[in-house]
Write a structure and sequence with these properties.
alpha+beta, Ubiquitin-like (UB roll), DNA polymerase, domain 1, 2 domains, 5-stranded mixed β-sheet, 5 strands, 37% helix
Length: 166
Amino acid sequence: MQVPLKVNGRDVTVDAPPNTFLVHAIREHLHLTGTHVGCDTAQCGACTVHMNGRAIKSCNVLVAQAAGAEITTIEGIAQPDGTMHPMQAAFKECHGLQCGFCTPGMVMSAIDLCTYHPKADEAEIRALLDGNLCRCTGYQNIVKAIQLGGEGMAAAPADAKATATA
């Protein structure tokens, strides 16, 4: 099945069986391996990408369901010159990672969280992260990173904000 998508701003066509999950199309057909396969049951959030501007768990969406959609993966959030997205920079600054396996999905969820809940406090951030699992950090530095990243997103130029919701 030929499935047209716009991935990280580029028009692509994925040739995959209709029962292929979006996460596998992203990783195996488009070779964008920043999106991770964790649980295959939409429980951990490692596969989180943005579809039409909202965070989704790509292990729970068939590629055929995404036909015509705009998909943004972790590889697509930095600026064209390589400047990190404010949320990526915040995760680096606050050391919001250890092993790094959950980090791409966590960053993608955090961007969505700060886009749609820009004034979330620590308790709200913790509640809104439900469904994104980290087995290493205890979340304290992740929460700090999301707070800092949200401030950075609010202060970012319009083109950086557009990347966040693309």
